[in-house]
Amino acid sequence: MNTSKRCDGLVRRNFVRVGGLTALGLGMPNFFQLQRAMAASPLSNSKTTAKAKSCILIWLDGGASHLDTFDPKPKAPSEVRGPFDSIGTNLTGIRISEHLPQIAQMLDRFALIRSVTSPFGVHNFAVQYLMTGYKPTPATDYPVMASVVAHLRREAGILPSNITIPNLTSRDAATLGNGFLPNSTKHFSLGSDPGKANYKVRDLEFFRGLDISRLDRRRKIVEAMNQFGNLKSKTDGPHDPDLERAYNLIASDKAKAAFNLNGEPRKVRERYTNDPRANLHDSNNIGQQCLLARRLVERGVPFVTVNNTGWDNHLDLATYANRHPGDPRSASHALIPGLDKALSALIGDLSDRGMLDETLVLVMTDFGRTPKINSTGGRDHWPNSFSVAMAGGGVKGGQVIGASDALGEFVKDRPITPGDLSSTIYTLLGIDPGHELQTPDGRPIRIAPQESKVIRELLA
User: Fold this and answer.
1) Pairing of strands 54-60, 359-365
2) pLDDT 10s digits, 391-450
3) DSSP character for 192?
4) Which sign does the torsion angle of CA 113, 114, 120, 124 carry?
5) Is residue 234 part of a domain?
6) How far apart are CA 198 and CA 261, in angstroms?
7) What pLDDT is recorded for position 205?
8) For residue 365, which of 389, 400, 337 has the smallest C-alpha distance?
């Protein structure tokens, strides 16, 4: 009996059954309700009761140093220890960077994984591995986790299910996208940074000032011509999903308002800003990026990626904590203090709003940095051992999983692969990591690698 699956996970046999129901008088609205329920079946196959309804991925683009953030080595030689001190946290015996003081005081809400390991020390392969859970191969273009979640958690609302702030790009031409999944699961990039004064959502600006009724009439004419001429794609609708979704967004004032940070009280916006005395647009942009991410998940977006750049630091490590050494004001713009303020504000804000238990927050990066400082006072790429932080969404906080050795060079205990991370993230979101999708040519692909394992210690 043929039980092959379509790309969305539906078994054809079951799909035919549903079609038979329509012949017996079941109306189309009921049909689509059943279709959505069947498509959501992989969400109910998880052996763990899921708590997370959405995910915010804070991506530290370029490779953040584990030694200078979440896995310092205060007893190592100076050439390994680096220029920063470490501080104690509210977890006994656990120390992190001195430039993460607010996170240190709420570390009991986090789970730190200090034993992530990967074979890839170049950006393109490393990023693909972390964001998809699969080792890159020319044989298959794997979708990022955000696209998989968007595919399996298709929402009925206007807002896209996969949004990136401000965009999803990586050096070395990394392939980051929907892979073999439909274009509708591709990330919707804002194309603009909410932490800058000229912030404007790219495709919404394209439609600004146009009369929606006239635009709608023109759109219907074009669609009719496409159908008449059989020009419309038979695989996935419009060729530019960004413009299609932007069209839908511009027609909804409520949806457009989701991207408007001016809707937040100044006190809330300052909570995410490293220096409340400064103009909001002069702060490290990651704060306003995280605030916008909170607004979006609050409105039902399943997956939001905050892509914070600047972490590929091969030069003076002082720039991690002070963008312009010698200028004390520039510390408010620096990477690690900005992360401290933004991440602590996001966790606190989600908690205050009763959203933390249902929002999974991830802090991930390409790889770590070399234990030994190089000749320019920086650190180079190092994938053998690095760190990931997780909170909310069913994560059991107050623990450190795994360990690197005394120099932060190699994994000493409990190695964790990006595949293991993907299996765990899917599980926390209520998605069976063993669920299979199909490529356009009919090949079944698990959403997480066969050899991957769920990190059970993380599950609350």
Assistant:
1) parallel
2) 999 999 999 999 999 999 999 999 999 999 999 999 999 999 999 999 999 999 999 999
3) S
4) positive
5) no
6) 13
7) 54
8) 389
DSSP symbol at 237: B
Confidence (pTM): 0.83
Residue 209 CB-half CA count within 13 A: 2
**Residue 88, strand partner residues:** 95
Say whether both 30 and 53 belong to one domain.
no
Q: Please give the single-letter amino acid code of residue 88.
A: G
What whole-number distance in Å separates Cα of residue 457 and Cα of residue 194? 36
5/69 same-domain check: no
- Does residue 79 fall inside a structural domain? yes
Number of separate domains in the chain: 2
Cβ count near 139 (within 10 Å): 7
Same domain membership, residue 114 and residue 22 = no
Residue-number span of the structural domain to which 6 is assigned = 1-39
Are residues 54 and 34 located together in one domain of the fold?
no
What's the pLDDT tens digit per position in 306-315?
A: 999 989 989 9
Same-domain pairing of 351 and 379 = yes
Q: Return d(Cα 292, Cα 314) in angstroms, integer.
A: 30
- Give yes or no for a contact between 288 and 261, defined as CB atoms under 8 angstroms apart: yes
- Look at the block and give the residue holding tokens 């790309």: 7
Whether the link from the prior residue into 166 is cis, omega within 30° of 0, is: yes
- Pair 85, 132 in one domain: yes
